[in-house]
Amino acid sequence: MRGTVTINGAPWSDLPWNAAPPEMGAAGAATPDAPAQPGRTPLDDVMIAMDVVDTLRHDRLLVERELNEGERRARLIERLREIYRSQGIDVPDSILAEGVRALEEDRFVYKPPPDGLMTRLAKIYVTRGAWGQYVVGALAAIAVLWIGWWAIYEWPRQARIAAERTEIAETIPRRLEALRAEIEATAAEPGLTTVAAAAARRGLAAAGSGNLAEARAARQELEELLAKLRSEYTIRIVTGKGEMSGLWRIPKVNRAARNYYLVVEAVDKQGNVIQQSILNEETGKRETVARWAVRVPQDVFERVRADKGDDGIINQGRVASKNRGHLEPDWSLPVSGGALTQW
Questions:
Q1: Among the residues of the chain, which ranges form H helices?
Q2: Measured in whole angstroms, how far is the alpha carbon of residue 112 from the centre of its chain?
């Protein structure tokens, strides 16, 4: 027969902190109004059995000495009874025996789940507070780097690619056709329209094949040609106090000869000096300069020198004129075509 558990002489169920539910008695037995249900262990008995197991686990020496020998089970139960009585708790033998069996069966013991994918995922989720802040920080850093890379490099690159596609597909072809038409309308020399048409065809072919550099080069060639055809200016010999108007040089290929030059500049109708692209015959390089020296025969050089030597003024200082529609100036004195940009 199951006894009633008491603590310090008071029934377990009378304690205010462990009051039994209305349908349960002091020892978990059914009250007259609530008959016991067969097959269910009263809650108080389970709690006492858990306490027995806990006592056994805490007293490891007791377990090792007594529980390892089956014939001493009765002595173990007796010692357990003495432990509880010393604490003022009256525990029935059936509960003590149940606690010993529970210890042997590893009941009331937490058994971790087997290691597997779901267990690992659960551990990761539970520990998210420890690693989550680092993951968030890393993701934020990646986002900042990605935004910076997009803003500084990728977006300008894509914009440039889009602009180049538009340029090679639309802008350059339209510009080439417009330049060719303008040159044809401006040129006073028939051969220039042929040159312009050839450059336009070359640029359109390059644009059609996706060669942007060659298409741009053809456009620049036509733009420079049109600018030359539109320009109007006169070429005059540089004169004035302290100004060099002419010079002579000994060529490297023939040390016994001399080349004679007049220093000139191009001036528009408003009197502004216009820079010119000149090929230096000594260096083989083309330079854009405000003044250059054009090679002339010795007699022309000597005549100009004598003219300036009279009174310091060159009376016939204008030596060429460049009219609209023409590519080259019309010289009023013989020139060889050679020139210098440095002296």
A1: 43-58, 60-62, 73-86, 93-104, 117-126, 128-149, 155-166, 172-186, 190-208, 212-230, 298-311
A2: 47
Strand partners, 16: none
Answer left, alpha or beta for residue 245, where phi above 0 means left and psi between -120 and 50 means alpha: alpha
Asked whether residue 18 carries a pLDDT value surpassing 60, the answer given is no
Specify the amino acid at residue 246: G
Residue at 31: amino acid letter: T
Tell the residue number behind the tokens 């010393």, with chain if given. 86
Which amino acid, residue 334? P
In Å, how far are 5, 6, 244 from 43, measured between CA atoms?
A: 12, 15, 123
Q: Alpha-carbon distance 256 to 103, whole Å?
A: 125
Q: What are phi and psi of 32, to 5 degrees?
A: -55, -30
Q: Which amino acid is at 117?
A: L
Q: How far, in Å, are 11, 67, 113, 233, 296 from residue 106 at the CA level?
A: 29, 13, 15, 112, 120
Measured N-to-C along each axis, helices 93-104 and 73-86 cross at an angle, to the nearest 10 degrees, of 120
Across the chain, mean pLDDT equals: 81
Answer yes or no: are the C-beta atoms of 237 and 263 closer than 8 Å.
yes
Are the beta carbons of 57 and 63 closer than 8 angstroms? yes
pLDDT per residue as tens digits for the range 106-123? 665 666 778 888 888 888
Q: DSSP letter string over 72-93? A: GHHHHHHHHHHHHHHTTEE--H
Q: 280-330: per-residue pLDDT in tens?
A: 999 999 999 999 999 999 999 999 999 888 787 888 889 999 999 999 999
CA distances from 223 to 188, 197, 220, 282 (A): 17, 13, 5, 28
Per-residue HEC secondary structure of 95-139 comes to: HHHHHHHHHHCCCCCCCCCCCCHHHHHHHHHHCHHHHHHHHHHHH
